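Q: Hi! First time doing this. I have a protein sequence and I read that you can turn it into a structure. Is that right? Here it is:
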Amino acid sequence: MMIKKKKNLVITDLGSRLPYGVKILVRGKIETLQGINVLNSTVHYGESLQEKIEEIKPCLFPMSSMTEEQEKEYNDLNCYEPGRFPHLEASLEYLLANKFDYRELIDEGLAVDATELDVY
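A: Yes, that's right. Below is the predicted 3D structure, encoded as structure tokens:
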């Protein structure tokens, strides 16, 4: 059983990824997340299908899987120079849009490594 803290972490993570077409593993199949019902901790996918948050795992890429080009793009967003502040929102959006697991959900067993899944 997923403890409340971990369940809230997954809900928060998935909620921020909704606009980017994140894939989830549910019942052994890869599906596209359609929505989240926070009140009853369910996710919606497919055509009117739903499942408890405990029964799904988002498909994400480990941070270590960034290509050199991706790493450069990401680092450019985080660059600090005198008089120029990092673009924190832009760098976070980059990680979300590219499905990077910056919250380390894979290590916690709360997400699956999408590197070999060919789902994006």
